[in-house]
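BUG: 3D viewer hangs when loading the predicted structure for this chain

Environment: internal workstation, default settings.
Expected: structure renders.
Actual: progress bar stalls at 90%.

Input used:
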Amino acid sequence: MLTEQSLDRLVPIENATMPNRSVIEWDKDDIDELKMMKVDVLALGMLSALRRCFELINPMRGTTYELATIPPDCSDTYDMICEADTIGVFQIESRAQMSMLPRLRPRKYYDLVVEVAIVRPGPIEGGMVHPYLKNRQLPPGQAKCPPGLEDALERTCGVPIFQEQVMQVAMIAAGFSAGEADQLRRAMAAWKRPGVLEKYYDKIINGMRERGYERDFAESIFRQIKGFSSYGFPESHAASFALLTYVSCWFKHHEPAAFLCALLNSQPLGFYSPSQLVQDARRHKVEVRAIDVNHSHHDSTLEPRTGQARMPVSVDLGPPVPPKRDQPAVRLGLHMVGGLSREAALRIEAARAEALFAHPQDLAHRARLTQADAA
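Structure tokens produced before the viewer hung:
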């Protein structure tokens, strides 16, 4: 319950373009100004893909894995991540992320938290990437944090990467109260409104100078804060995303067949097309079998592996990698046939249960296929 009375008594509501959806006509920033409750509810396709991975793997392996029980700190998984072999995984599959992975070289969970957050417009525009990578290479014991800011910045090598750290720096180094720091956070979130942050310039610079910080350092902190106003991650957000990143990488490394199958059944998802995902899986020695009306279900499925030849690879995605243990084959589903309706695919499954199809006419007749089914 968000309101004491019907929502349409408080705000104007209209039908959205999408069927059975409604939208509030007011701008989200106006809602903020009115101090009304506003919650972002986002859907993540990778959650569906990982659920499908668990549903495929647990019965096959006799395990009871879930998000919280996937083995942590797998060195082989982190080796794969450091090599930027991350097509199809969560958050670190883009070209920008792939170029960062061999430089940052994540080896533990918190490294992934940083990786997820640092390749964003905010940290990049704020000039935080190169200082972080440089400080990360410093030997133990060598100072990485400005004096007095260890509590705020030590965990990220002296560089503010998360929104919470910017608020901490403002309070510690510039004398902001907790309320003023929260107002600064709100100003950073209002990045579409130019000039919102400029009113904090004098307070940040003068507050840091009064506390003994050099002007150049104070100016660099303000530039980083302005960078965050373009798009910066809260640490809690990055930590949640990093868990999905690690688990998706673990599946890609240890169970590539199930991972591919789950990704195909969760489309649309991520940066890569189904064709690219299939080609990458073949490079990892996953046997991918063609769509076949006598074997394929609506969804893609796993099948026991035999000596059947793999489909040809049409794009070179790099050198092959060693095969994983007893991987099943992936049978592409009827859902990947362009234009074929779900209802027609289910009719094909039902008709095939009686007997395999002998020829195309037999298929069309028994599955009651018409031109409308390919619309």
